[in-house]
Design brief:
The protein is about 35% helix and about 20% strand. With about 425 residues, it is α/β, with parallel strands linked by helices. The strands form 2 sheets. Strands 1, 2, 3, 4, 5, 14, 15 and 16 form an 8-stranded mixed sheet that branches. An 8-stranded parallel sheet has the order 6-7-8-9-10-11-12-13. β2 and β3 form a beta hairpin. It is globular and about 70 Å long.
Length: about 425
């Protein structure tokens, strides 16, 4: 890993233990990492570190790649605490959705909000993730369900990536739910998504990937495939909300399109696992939604692991089924409830999360040439990141080689 030559560097982070996440934790004790023009220029033992004008003494902390939250719906207006209360009193998620609640409740609030409103209410949620060492964040649309609403969500997401120290990847989720103006006309709505909304939003540069909700209360296999074909025509990668509430063969479908990820997966079948393994499609585990909905059927973790499917972990931050803005908590849940190891959980929030966003060549590990996005932790071992509940050991975060304090807060005006 180390190179004894002296590359050109701007700064060196020294007196630090490195979890490079290459081949497991990839530990380098008493290490150092050098940065040049926002990228990693050198990694190795401190005694071999190149000279630099700027040296950051990390005081024996642990340094990991910046964490990556690869599945969120974090930009939205309103909340659904009343629906949560109703579920606790006996209503099911499907009952609430069919009675005009669920996703449509958030759609109504989001459609009424401006881009500026969406930025204002979403920035504090994003800031919470950043304070936990998150440096890359996926943000889905899907709460507008018309041209104006979806564009506003994606513009707000892009703007958050400009205002805050985070890399934002946007995912178009127009096929999230059927809006009321298309009641009983799902095929017509899919035509609106594939023939008008997606091409125009992609032309504006607002879309990095395309997602859909393939479910009995969402969209069918065939309708989802129409969305994927539209994405393929625009050379956009796909991912899918698959097998969350029932088995719809969505994992097989997204794998057939060489999709980046299949997410949720509580009802995943052996055929779906085999298809994902063959395609290199990442399984994104979302324990927050499983916990919040009080589900009992777990994703087939052991089978996915045995098949060699990469396991990512994300918050699924959203107002209805996972109002959680802590990736560290998601990692703990994945270990405690689903028996991931702490190493797997950290891999799931770094190297495998990067793959779920199609960014594994740029982020997710501490390797020469990758973006200099790091998190510094006051811990004795990397396993502690998935251990504590409600405790944040993050000391500082480095974005593109620039260090900032964990609690730097929001910019003026928020």
């Amino acid at each position: 890993m180390s190179e004894r030559s002296n590359p050109r560097v701007d700064a060196v982070f020294a007196n630090v233990n490195l979890a490079t996440m290459v081949g497991g934790y990839g530990e380098i004790m008493d290490g150092a990492i050098a940065v040049h023009h926002g990228r990693i220029a050198w990694v190795g033992a401190r005694r071999d570190a190149p000279r630099a004008a700027v040296i950051h003494d990390c005081d024996g902390a642990w340094l990991t790649p910046g964490l990556i939250d690869c599945h969120t719906h974090i930009v939205h207006a309103g909340n659904r605490a009343d629906e949560w209360e109703a579920r606790l009193e006996g209503a099911s998620y499907e009952d609430i959705a069919r009675n005009g609640g669920g996703i449509m409740s958030t759609v109504r609030a989001t459609r009424a909000a401006s881009v500026e409103d969406l930025i204002r209410v979403s920035a504090p949620r994003v800031s919470q993730l950043l304070a936990e060492g998150v440096t890359t964040l996926e943000i889905k649309s899907g709460y507008g369900l018309n041209m104006t609403g979806e564009a506003n969500l994606l513009r707000a997401a892009r703007r958050l990536g400009e205002i805050l120290p985070v890399c934002v990847r946007t995912t178009f989720l127009g096929a999230h739910a059927l809006p009321p103006e298309f009641a009983d006309r799902a095929d017509d709505y899919i035509a609106e998504v594939t023939e008008r909304m997606l091409p125009l939003l992609a032309k504006e540069g607002l879309v990095d990937a395309v997602d859909a909700f393939c479910e009995h209360i969402g969209f069918t296999y065939d309708q989802t495939e129409r969305v994927f074909n539209a994405a393929k025509r625009l050379n956009l990668p796909v991912k899918l909300h698959a097998e969350q509430l029932s088995e719809q063969r969505g994992a097989e479908l997204v794998a057939r399109y060489r999709g980046l990820s299949a997410d949720h997966l509580e009802h995943l079948t052996p055929a779906g696992i085999a298809a994902m393994a063959a395609a290199g499609t990442v399984a994104v585990l979302l324990p927050g939604a499983w916990y919040f909905l009080r589900e009992t059927r777990m994703p087939p973790i052991a089978e996915l692991r045995a098949a060699g499917v990469p396991l990512a972990v994300a918050t699924d931050c959203n107002p209805g089924t996972s109002p959680m803005s802590s990736l560290l908590l998601a990692m703990n849940m994945a270990c405690t409830m689903w028996r991931l190891t702490p190493r797997e959980a950290l891999q799931g929030a770094t190297v495998h999360a990067a793959r779920a966003l199609g960014m594994h060549d740029r982020i997710g590990t501490l390797e020469v040439g990758k973006r200099a996005d790091f998190a510094l932790w006051d811990i004795a071992r990397p396993s502690e990141l998935a251990y504590s509940i409600g405790f944040n050991p993050c000391q500082a975060v480095v974005n593109g080689g620039v260090m900032r304090e964990r609690d730097a807060g929001l910019p003026a005006g928020f």
